[in-house]
Each structure stands twice: as C-alpha cells, then as structure tokens.
Amino acid sequence: MTEANVLVIDDDDDILLSAKLFLKQHFNQVVTCKSPKEINVLLSHNDIDIILLDMNYQKGASDGREGLYWLEHILSIDKDYVVILMTAYGNVELAVQAIKKGAIDFILKPWENDKLYATLSAASKLRASTRKVKKLEKIHSSLQNDIARKFENIIGTSGPIKHLQHTLTKVAPTDANVLILGENGTGKQVFAYELHKHSLRKNHIFMHVDLGSLNENLFESELFGYAKGAFTDARDDRPGRFELADNGTIFLDEIGNLSLPLQSKLLTVLQNRTVTRLGESRERKVNVRLITATNMPLNEMVGKGTFRQDLLFRINTVELMLPPLHERAEDILLLADHFLQTFSTKYHKSISRINDKAGKTLLNYHWPGNVRELQHVIERAIIMADGHEITETDLQLSPQRFGSSTPVTANMDLEEMERMMVQKAIDNHKGNISRAAAELGLTRAALYRRIEKFGL
C-alpha cells in the first residue's frame, strides 16, 4: 500500500468506478468526482497528494482546453500538487503543452493498469520528496531564526567594540575570508554570526563546525562527506558540512587545533573550491563564505612549523582581534543587564536590577573567562537570588580573581577605579610599561591609551 491519497476527476461514471476499484488496492484513499467545479471543496476537505484529471468535460470536446484550465486552477491553489492529465484523444502537442503548464505526466484512456499504477507510484514519490524538502526548509528557517535569537546584536559601547563594529560594516557584505582571534569566551561565534547576518548570504545557512571537538578520524567524513560503502558504517551517501553550507557561510571554530595533515586537506578544498567525498573520485563544487576562529597564536605557530603559512594566508584576508572583557570594562554592566533580562525571562523571575554593590564587584573582577563567564555568573545569580535584585552574595565570585587587591570604595565610579588600577600597576613596576601592562592583562598599546586618557 502506497502512502498517498488520490483524487480522480472525470465525467464518465464507468471511468471513476474502474479507477476507484483498481487504485484503492494500492493507495490509502481514492476520492472521485464528476465535475472539476467541486475541486475547491474536495481539496479543502481532503489531504490529497495526486490528482488524476480528465481533459475534456463538455460533450463532444476533444481539444483539452478544459483540462488545461483546471490544471492552472489547481496549481494556483498550491503549486506543489502533483497533477496527471488523462484523455481518450492522443495528441503529442497537447501533452507537451500540459507538461509546460505544470502537469507531471499524461495518460491515454483506456489505460493499462500496470502503467497507471507505475505512473501514480512515481507521482507519489515525487509528492513525498516535495513535502520532505518543504519540511526541511521549514526546519532550516526555524533553526536560522533560533540562531538569530541566540546571537543578538553585539552589545557594547567601548572603543574596541565600536572599532570592531565599524570593521564589520565594511567586511560583512564582501566574501572575504575572515579570521577571528581572541581568548576563550570573548564572543568569536557571536561575531562570526554577525558577519553572516549582514552578508549577501544571510538567507542561506550558517554552518558552525567546532574543529576542537571533532575527532581527527572523522574530519574528512564530517567536512567533506562520504559515499555509501566508503567505510564499515557508511550505509548511505552523505554530504559533508561544506556541501550543506553551499551558498551560505561555514564557520570553522578552533582552527588552530588542526594537525598538519588535516591542514593540508583543508587547504586543498579552499584552493580548489571543491570537495571529494570519501569513497568517491568525483569533485563537487562548493560556494561558501569562510570564517575561522582560534584563541591560539597562529603566527607563532607558523614560525614553529605547527601551522601552514599558506593556509594562514588563505584564511586571514581580514583579521578581527576580539579584546578580553577586562579591556572593555565599560561594557561589563551593559552585558550584565542584557543577561539579567534574558535569564529573568527564561527562569520566570521578577528580578529587575543588579544593586550598586554587586555592580562594583562586577567591575572590579578580572573576568578570566570573559563574556562567557559573565553570562554564566549572571545566570547562576538569577537562579540563586531570593529578592528582586542581584546582590554581591548572589554573584559568588572568586576573591582570587579580582583585578586589584585594593578594595574599591563604595562611591568610586568606573573611571576612578580604572585610573587607580592603572596608576597602581605603573607604580608597582616603577614605570615599566611592559610589566604594568602584563599585570593588568592589557597590551602595551591599550595601556598607553589609558595613560593618555587619564593624563598619567
């Protein structure tokens, strides 16, 4: 029994009876009617997959115009309906015209049962395939919407973030390969999605691949796909991540973790813009925008021979360096408030603010885990809080991870606190900028900017 419902429309009672008696042996449901004027009602009350439509209804008609008219009408209701036309008058030109207008096949009456079954069986497979594609499209659209909600706009007003946002507006609309550098937890995946969201590929897939968690033995099969029988468990053909991301963006996270042999294989794909599935010799073209990320020093690795220089040239047309959270302290409370709203809603709690003492604590903390750690701290605080605000106790931050051993006074604002920390570090190291910068977790350039800002 084929999982499909068939509608047969013909003005001949004998034809309808004959079709129903035969087809109900092979299909879930067979609905019949004498007049195409009933089409709208029948389609609205039945889940029809295949429509077997006669081409002539008026007495003496043989030109098929009625059938073509009702074909267009059916497809105007839903262009995915599978329609097969039938007539007692063989006419090749009419058949061609019907196919052009959207029919999938043409049957002459009287039909042979085997041929009728074969035609409708093929039609049911086409209908099932179309429905599967539609379902996958809906799933894809839903996933992309979920991703969009997960990676909301980049939050921050600090100098480094403004600079990155300015760069993003220039780079995103291009197809340039982008390498995103930064410590763990700085938001590399968020920036990668932001690039995709503002690119010309935004309506296609954003494919995230965590190379750090990918077993080396599975690298080729996961990224490039495999053919049936390529290895023991390869029971079907399967496309890899590059093929699935065709016309979209592929984000290769933790690219610094790749071994040299795997780097070589990736480079070949990037150079040729083709992939070859395991167990096949056929090359398949892929059209993807490449974004990569790592927290590892790739330039140093090139010098040590652990990362291919030609691969680095290929992936870093544009480099984005994400600052650690303690270098964008102006953004800490903005981010904390954003996470407060997100998790208050998620956990159905009416927590409206972070109190002043807790805010000072957040500003004075060093944030070794960066934005990701801040997110986890606020989520945990929301869960643990008893009142309508987050307190210092709710944060549960480690006292060993604060930027200064000197307590922050209750009335000290952010700039005063930052100035005090910079001055103290410079004094501790007797003016040695490199050592002071290392203590603060800043680059020399970042420290010089703060010295100029505070007039030290």
TrEMBL record:
Specify the Sigma-54 factor interaction domain's residue ranges: 154-383
Q: What is this protein called?
A: DNA-binding transcriptional response regulator, NtrC family, contains REC, AAA-type ATPase, and a Fis-type DNA-binding domains
Give the CDD domains listed for this entry. Answer: AAA
Keywords from UniProt, A to Z, are: Activator, ATP-binding, DNA-binding, Nucleotide-binding, Phosphoprotein, Transcription, Transcription regulation
Keyword Ribonucleoprotein attached = no
Asked if the keyword Coiled coil belongs to this entry, the reply reads no
SUPFAM superfamilies per the UniProt record, alphabetical: CheY-like (SSF52172), Homeodomain-like (SSF46689), P-loop containing nucleoside triphosphate hydrolases (SSF52540)
Q: Which residues form the Response regulatory domain?
A: 5-124
Q: What is the lineage of its organism?
A: Bacteria, Pseudomonadati, Bacteroidota, Sphingobacteriia, Sphingobacteriales
Instruction: Name the Gene Ontology biological process terms.
Output: phosphorelay signal transduction system; regulation of DNA-templated transcription
| PROSITE patterns membership | RESPONSE_REGULATORY, SIGMA54_INTERACT_2, SIGMA54_INTERACT_3, SIGMA54_INTERACT_4
According to the UniProt entry, its GO molecular function terms are:
ATP binding; sequence-specific DNA binding
Superkingdom of this protein's organism? Bacteria
| Pfam families cross-referenced by the UniProt entry | AAA_lid_14, HTH_8, Response_reg, Sigma54_activat
Modification 4-aspartylphosphate, positions: 54
